[in-house]
Amino acid sequence: MKNNFLKIKKGSILIILGIILILISLYNINKWKIIQNDLLSKEVIDEKKDKKVIKRELRNNISIKKVEEKIDVEFKLSRKDYKDGLMKIYIPKIDVKAAIISGTSVNDLKKGPGLYEKSPLPWKEKGNVCIAGHRTTYGAWFRNVDKLKKGDKIILKINNTNFSYEVEKVFIVEKNDWSVTESIGYNAITLTACHPLNTSKQRIIVRGKQKDISMENKKYIKIY
Predict the structure, then answer these.
(1) Which residue numbers in the chain have pLDDT < 70?
(2) Residue 134, in any domain of the structure
(3) Is the Cβ–Cβ distance between 66 and 223 less than 8 Å?
């Protein structure tokens, strides 16, 4: 009887341990979802400066330099101060909605699309905002970037302001070709991901041009 009890107890412990291991594995697999949901649900606030959203009217057809002057209360943040989730990326054509992580390390890209360390932020004049993302693992946010065509929309959102881009081209480069992250003479966005699927032999590049900046309180800044 005692031996049977010990066997049952031992079996129960093994079952419990097995369940715990399964739960840990499921958490690790879905951790990126938890992180992304948390970042997407938070209202972005610049705690360091605690600035209010712009209240005054913004004129149409003004240069990006003037835009910087008019929205400096909201956009004085520098790249080194960027925090996970400050910006969100939306690509309606391929149903992408994700918080942008501050970096492109292995651990960063597990959490979401990552802002290159050398990348400017979208309000920098002639800045090329560069973002990397996975296609087959973790969130696989950039899995379908090969389906994007000229004219498709990419939107970066920070606080109540949208930076809108239109895709210009989608092309392939060698995996060590980092020239695509350099400034190209106008405000742009560059998305990078491994190519083909399930390999890192090359990189697929999506290049977009900034078209306008709009604010959710209906005030509007025309850039081009």
Answers:
(1) 1-12, 14, 17-18, 21-30, 42-76, 216-224
(2) yes
(3) no
DSSP one-letter code for 146:
G
**Mode of pairing for the β-strands spanning 128-132 and 188-195:** parallel
| Total tally of structural domains belonging to the chain | 1
Look up the domain containing 177 and give its range: 42-222
Q: Parallel, antiparallel, or unpaired: how do β-strands 202-215 and 161-174 relate? A: antiparallel
Q: Are 132 and 193 in contact (CB under 8 A)?
A: yes
List, by residue number, the catalytic residues. Answer: 134, 194
Nearest to 161 by CA among 78, 221, 92, 94: 221
How many residues in the chain? 224
Name the residue type at position 189.
Answer: I
DSSP 8-state class, residue 139: T
pLDDT for residue 137: 85
Determine the Cα–Cα distance for residues 73 and 134; give it in Å rounded to an integer.
34
Beta bridge partners of 89: 98, 156
Residue found under tokens 């850039």: 223
Q: Which residues pair with 158 in a beta bridge?
A: 161
Give whole-number Cα distances, 145 to 158, 160, 175, 220, in Å. 22, 26, 16, 28
- The helix/strand/coil state of 107 is helix
Report the 10 Å Cβ neighbour count for 157. 20
With b meaning 16 or more CB within 10 Å and e meaning fewer, what string describes 189-200?
bbbbbbbeeeee
Amino acid in the structure at residue 105 = S
The CATH number of the domain holding residue 77 is: 2.40.260.10
Write out pLDDT tens, residues 37-48: 888 876 544 434
